[in-house]
From TrEMBL, chains A, B:
Family annotation (InterPro entries): HAD-like_SerB, HAD-like_sf, HAD_sf
GO molecular-function term, one example from the UniProt record: hydrolase activity
The keyword Lyase appears for this protein: no
Organism: Microvirga tunisiensis
Signal peptide annotation: none
Annotated protein name in UniProt: Haloacid dehalogenase-like hydrolase
Keyword Ribosomal protein listed: no
This protein's UniProt keywords: Hydrolase
Length: 318, 318
């Protein structure tokens, strides 16, 4: 059984839809053949490729960045919104809503150059552990999705991330862990300022937002970065609905997939009530829009990569 | 001699610098080895990969678009700046300067969706001929550069275009003619608006500029789209200087190349005086910044692809 495609996916309608779609677009003499250059697949990141509870992982990175900043400037601890972040006040962060919360997060990365940021991010990923899952972030990604990305690439697809999270934080992680190089990561971004004197050249991160890559902005950023409509898209929230609809509205064979977190035992069960990234309209209208809903509980036989530490390691800490 | 690398490049310092650089970064046990994922090469388009005289080719596309629009709305012929464009008033267009002239060009593409634009652009490239060179645009590109792009890719490089021209017009041309897919084209862009009703999904082009990809914006857009500093960059004007300096300022082996148009017989001879894209500072400070100047006349044994029509076909029309 080890050479069965997508081993962490259970037999069932979601796996069948994927295998059937890939077979159709790769059959050279078939009516639905798509040449490799047009086999573009876009994946949301938070909640689609890895865990986003109780907060998107970017916030845990920001908490640690703020600790470092507050060690130098203790007044930060009393200044909102940083106070809420430093106190890990999750309810307050949820109440901010997705864009406002992320904009605060991005602002804490301002004033350094792009290379410094990349180095700090890589160091953090190497050392940090997810506070609820109690494991390194590289083991908070979904094993079935890692297999799906590799399976698509083995079938001539080019895989992209299209995320509301910060583009540079994802890039510090995606190549090693998802096999997705930086130039295939699209995300939210801040403006950068080029600075050059006779003896220095720098690209500085500003606090001003360049693009918040969520909802209707996702298709526009796909057009900007990729210049080609995806034939497959995978998301998990209303933030992905525009990307899914844009994908499905193209001519020829299309597949739109929506992960539904219905697995409280192995991961988390949530949809409408998650204020940082609710799933309402995409779930209610999935049938109407031709979106395939992937229930985590029924579709996946494991969720997280096997850490070799037995079953307990794949359950969230309480 | 047909299997000599870069056959359209003459023996000399420019070709030697390229071959030497590629040998260094691809020698696995050498001190300058660069793994393939980091072999990023960025090329300007107008004046670097193809002819930009007497105007960047985008303007010839715009002239034809405006003719189609003026056929429906004759009042356009009397309204500036469209009047100057419709009259092919090159001096007036030059006087506008690069960004203003391009912004007018982009505005003439507003109001259609992204798919419609791509179709119009592809049709135009298939039918139109360059007014001075009197040949299809696919034969206005520089044969030595097409060879260089292919040579770099054969050595594990990923090749990107980073142009001040409109990103979508370049994409309609680059895959077939340069072997560069849409997702590896960076250029100036307008804002796009996602529109969806129950039964339609569209991405509409607006007239508002998203990014004018020239000068200091080029490194910022490289960071946004690629997320990795190039190790090789090739340009031909001051609009490329920031990209060249950003490339050369990275750690490890770097190559920055600047095409100098000094070949009035086979192409055009110009630098400082070309108001739409002058070459002044990059030429004056090439030595100081470590930029290798590539004189067209001495470096290339042919300029344009051989059309099979004899020598006359490779000379500009008067």
């Amino acid at each position: 059984m080890t050479d069965r495609a997508l081993p962490s996916w259970n037999e069932g309608p979601a796996r069948a839809a994927i295998l059937n779609f890939v077979a159709r677009v790769t059959t050279e003499d078939g009516p639905d053949y798509v040449r490799p250059a047009e086999r573009i697949a876009t994946f949301d990141n938070d909640g689609t490729l890895w865990c986003e509870q109780p907060l998107q992982n970017q916030f845990f990175f920001v908490f640690d960045r703020l600790e470092a900043l507050a060690a130098k400037d203790p007044a930060l601890r009393e200044r909102q919104p940083f106070k809420a972040f430093l106190e890990r006040d999750i309810a307050t962060i949820h109440a901010l809503g997705k864009q406002a919360a992320f904009e605060i997060a991005f602002a804490t990365h301002a004033g350094m150059n792009a290379d410094e940021f990349a180095e700090i991010a890589k160091e953090w990923f190497a050392a940090a552990r997810h506070p609820k899952l109690n494991r390194p972030y590289a083991q908070c990604l979904y094993q079935p999705q890692v297999e799906l990305l590799a399976y698509l690439r083995a079938n001539g697809f080019k895989t992209f991330i299209v995320s509301g999270g910060g583009i540079d934080l994802i890039r510090a992680f995606a190549e090693e862990n998802y096999g997705i190089p930086p130039e295939q990561v699209i995300g939210s971004s801040v403006k950068l300022r080029f600075e050059a004197g006779d003896n220095h050249v720098d690209l500085m991160r500003l606090s001003e937002l360049n693009s918040f890559d969520d909802r209707e902005v996702k298709p526009a950023n796909i057009a900007l970065h990729i210049g080609r409509r995806p034939i497959l898209a995978f998301g998990n929230s209303d933030g992905d609905l525009a990307m899914l609809r844009y994908t499905l509205a193209g001519k020829g064979p299309r597949l739109g997939l929506l992960l539904h977190h219905d697995d409280a035992e192995r991961e988390f069960a949530y949809d409408r009530e998650f204020r940082l990234s609710p799933l309402v309209e995409a779930l209610d209208k999935a049938d109407q829009y031709g979106i395939t809903v992937v229930g985590m509980k029924a579709s996946w036989n494991i969720v997280f990569p096997d850490t070799g530490a037995g079953k307990a390691a794949s359950r969230p800490a309480s």
